[in-house]
Amino acid sequence: MTDPTITAFDWVPPFAQGQVRDLRVRWAFEEVGQSYDVRYLSQGEQKEPPHRDRQPFGQVPTLEDGDLTLFESGAIVLHVAETHDGLLPTDRSARARAIEWMFAALNSVEPAIMDLSFVTLFEADKPWSAMRRGSVEERIHGRLKDLSARLGDKTWLDGDTFTAGDLLMVTVLRILIDQGFVESYDNLAAYMHRGIDRPAFQRALAAQMDGFTGEPPAWFAAWAAKMKQGEQA
Amino acid sequence: MTNPIITAFDRSPDGGRGLARDTRVRWALEEVGQPYDVQPMTVEALKQPAHLARNPFGQIPTFQTGDLTLFESGGIILHIALHHPGLLPADDDARSRAIMWMFAAVNSVEPAILELFNARMLEGDKSWAAERVPIVMERARKPLRQLAAHLGDDEWLDGAFTAGDLMMVSVLLRFRPAGLLDEFPTLAAYVARGEARPAYRRAYDAQHAFNTRSES
Predict the structure, then answer these.
(1) What is the C-alpha to C-alpha distance for residues B99 and B166, in angstroms, rounded to an integer?
(2) Residue in B closest to A59 by C-alpha
(3) Which of A22, A191, A226, A227 lies at a CB distance of 3.0 to 4.6 Å from A8, suitable for a disulfide?
């Protein structure tokens, strides 16, 4: 049986290295001990037909496994979890709760966090970004505070067992690492680091970083200069 | 066997237009023919310990059946789909793709409309709103354009109607008040096909009646 193939970028800007969503799929594969192949895309290729056929939104990762092609990191992680042991409990209710946390990570926590990227990156050159920052941060803290309260002193979100829900939640929280958000909640920071410290995560992260062997595209230098100017204005 | 209980806004802020997330759970339950009960939640009750025990983020909907309590509409709908026939194909690959579209709806499409909601509603009175809202609108068009290109003239996203379509139609409906849905005729037609399903009608009518009921 041939290994599944995922897609990943051969280069992303420094701020995104170690954060691209193929990390989640690599981590899932590492947790269940499934080897995989990677098809690397250079920047721009994700918008072109061969990849567009795999991913209508022009993003990574995708998964090709036999006749099956999937996109959406959450769906791929769930597919890996359903077809291998180790990421979903067998008890029906515990399994439903693990899947619930997968959706919670992606739909209740991640959107609030992504809003910060508009302030700090994509709209950094706009005059309103500095003024928006407070309310964006407040919305993030709203989510983290609730999550921290629910986690309490548990090891993982649903108790003692690490699941695919934790895998996604840790990667979502890690988008904010060392920016003072997660670190404001001792239990949440400890939880995130328990995830990061897992050998499977460390192997996944190293594999993603090793994959950045490409060159930045022509537009990147100009974009970076414009954003830097915005930050200083 | 007692019916599952879902929570919904006591009075939805949308006045019963079906855009609150209990509608999608009602729709899933209607598709599989599972009767359910509804527990109304006031805005104050959402933040009380009893409800936070159901949903740590103090939101609706939640779903309770027997010993199991779930939150997150995606998690609830997938649970319903996994345990009743009718919302997921039997073929393993087609089933994985249906679940993929559920994730695509909530993670690749819905964030754009949440962002627009924040820009227009939460920050609508800010000095920068007039200049920023068009930028956010344009960003929201991007996934719609991509989805429209993918869907083409197909009836549903991957052959037969699945939980993926249920979720995608539910998310796309939220783009309609801003006028964005109708900019994409193929998506508007796709949503209309979803709305025409008898199960959707029943779900819509139930939430509408619930949200416009007179006080007893």
Answers:
(1) 11
(2) B108
(3) A22
| Residues from chain B contacting residue A99 (CB–CB below 8 Å) | 75, 78-79
pLDDT in tens, chain B (216 residues): 799 999 999 999 999 999 999 999 999 999 999 999 999 999 999 999 999 999 999 999 999 999 999 999 999 999 999 999 999 999 999 999 999 999 999 999 999 999 999 999 889 999 999 999 999 999 999 999 999 999 999 999 999 999 999 999 999 999 999 999 999 999 999 999 999 999 999 999 999 999 999 875
CB contact under 8 A, B106 and A57: no
This model of the complex carries an ipTM of 0.95
Q: What is the pTM of this model?
A: 0.95
Dig out the tokens for A184 from the structure. 């404001």
Q: What order of strands is seen across the sheet that includes strand A37-41?
A: A37-41, A5-9, A62-65, A68-71
Chain B residues with CB under 8 Å of A131 CB are 126-128
B171 touches chain A (CB under 8 A): no
